[in-house]
Design a protein that fits this description.
single chain, about 35% helix, alpha/beta, 3 helices, about 15% strand, 3 strands, about 110 residues, three-stranded parallel sheet
Length: about 110
């Protein structure tokens, strides 16, 4: 397995940065990377442009492994807010982790 690191620029990402990052990500996978880890530690002033860039990177990755590490708390909060928390390798709070089945209480109405 080849894990490759991609650095998200700081203090925040711009639209041109996102296009360049997506092109670089595609080249990394084309060159044989089996998993790409995006290091977001440099993002000290996160905003929606960072969220947009990460969403575009996820789309560029397609079904290939892609995750974000080093995200500071404000960026983590934004990703939780917009429902992209799975990029951090965490399940969303409102959804149970995979393989967990919800219980049914006696007297519940059928769906």
């Amino acid at each position: 397995m080849t894990i490759t690191r991609l650095l998200l620029p700081g203090p925040g990402t711009t639209a041109p940065d996102a296009a360049l990052l997506c092109a670089r990500l595609a080249r990394l996978y084309d060159a044989g990377a089996t998993e790409v880890v995006c290091d977001a530690a440099a993002v000290t002033a996160p905003g929606l442009a960072d969220v947009d860039a990460l969403a575009r990177l996820r789309l560029t990755a397609g079904g290939r492994p892609f995750r974000v590490t080093g995200a500071p708390p404000p960026l983590r909060a934004l990703l939780h807010l917009v429902g992209l928390v799975e990029l951090l390798g965490e399940p969303e709070e409102r959804e149970p982790p995979g393989g967990v089945q919800e219980g049914v209480q006696a007297g519940d109405l059928p769906p």
